[in-house]
Amino acid sequence: MMRGGNREMRRMMDKMGLDMNEVSNVQEVIIKTDKKEIIITKPSVTEMKAKDNSIFTVTADSYEERELEVPIFSDEDIQLVSQQAGVDEEKAKSALEESKGDLARAILLLTTG
Predict the structure, then answer these.
(1) What stretch(es) of the chain map to CATH 2.20.70.30?
(2) Which of 78, 72, 100 is nearest to 91 (CA)?
(3) Backbone angles phi, psi at 48, to 5 degrees
(4) pLDDT-derived band of residue 1, with 50, 70 and 90 as boundaries?
(5) What are the entry keywords (predicted)?
(6) CB of 29 within 8 A of CB of 58?
């Protein structure tokens, strides 16, 4: 950390146009990917606001990871499999689920009968 502590840090942030605030009473933060969820209970969350965006810092003692039973496939993946295999998007999605997201395997499943 810098010498001068928080006051010096705040001055520097003000010069850069950043505003930093603690987000109070956060119960949980959930980060979702296409294959899993990361659940963070009672984290400490700080928001740093800049002109065009915000940066959130999440600090936690522990967290839980959950694999999704059915991965979430992007619309692009579903469309690609659908087009390549010549099937509707519902069949493409089913093949992606069966192949656990492996695009090539999903297309093969649909085209090799």
Answers:
(1) 5-67
(2) 78
(3) -110, 110
(4) very low
(5) Protein transport, RNA-binding, Transport
(6) yes
* Angstrom distance (rounded) from CA 85 to CA 70: 21
Tell me the CA distances in angstroms from 71 to 32, 94, 97, 101, 108, one per residue in order.
11, 11, 7, 7, 19
The residue ranking higher by pLDDT, 11 or 21, is: 21
In CATH, what number does 5-67 get?
A: 2.20.70.30
Q: What is the mean pLDDT of residues 59-81?
A: 90
**Residue carrying structure tokens 């992007």:** 74
Helix (H/G/I), strand (E/B), else coil: 48: strand
- Full-prediction pTM beyond 0.70? no
Residue ranges with strand state E in the chain: 19-23, 28-32, 36-41, 44-49, 54-59, 64-67
Would you state the pLDDT for residue 108? 94
Q: Does position 100 have pLDDT exceeding 50, yes or no?
A: yes
